[in-house]
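By convention, the token line describes the chain's fold. To illustrate:
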Amino acid sequence: MPSNHSAEKYNKVKSILISQPKPERSPYFNLEEKWGLKIDFRQFIQVEAVTPKEFRKARIKPSDFSAIIFNSKTSIDHFFKLNEEMRVSMSAETRYFCLTEAIANYLQKFIVYRKRKVTVGTRTIEDLKPGLMKHKKEKFLLPCSNLGAKKISNFLTENEFDWQEAVMHKTVPSDLSDLSDVTYDILVFFSPLGIDSLYENFPGFKQNDTRLAIWGSSTKESVEKHGLTTNIYAPTGEFKSMTMAIENYLNKSNK
């Protein structure tokens, strides 16, 4: 994915690639229209299911656990899908702990909610602490991706819970080979995984005059580790969204 720009700091921007799936509605569409840009969306990472054969290698039987912790809708999907494929049935007495109300509401697609025991947090694992401590004698299972769930894992270990992690889905780089001859003035990234995917697909990537719009400190750190330069950054006190930060840049580059 080479660049075709001169070395001018604020050279005009004509095209932007957002490393996310295309949404139905987005403020990016307003930017596209206002500035006469070409804005494309492309998912740089994707989620793959762990097969029953792969999962059995971990020697984990979900029905051996009396409590399950869900930190995302994705983990719910893969937990119940894998159980169905392996013909595993969870006890009606199983307790479920969900990090947010949205996750708990999604759980209703898979269980008879009123007959099960569900504890709901507001945002983080710390919010669930009172409920978790109340049921500390339970044996906990944490369904997660191959990237783990570090904050939850640390919490459970530090508080000496009887728990185990279960990798039920994988986050992997998407195949971007069709972009090898395509150039964009700005590439927009929202996670270190997006940067990893960039180099997985294009090991010889050189930034040259391509501008990088980066979301979050961990993504910025990944950019710096690869010797790249962050040209546009959000969130900040001034720019709470990526579109605000990009528009600020366009005010200088496309004036």
The two ends are 26 Å apart (CA to CA).
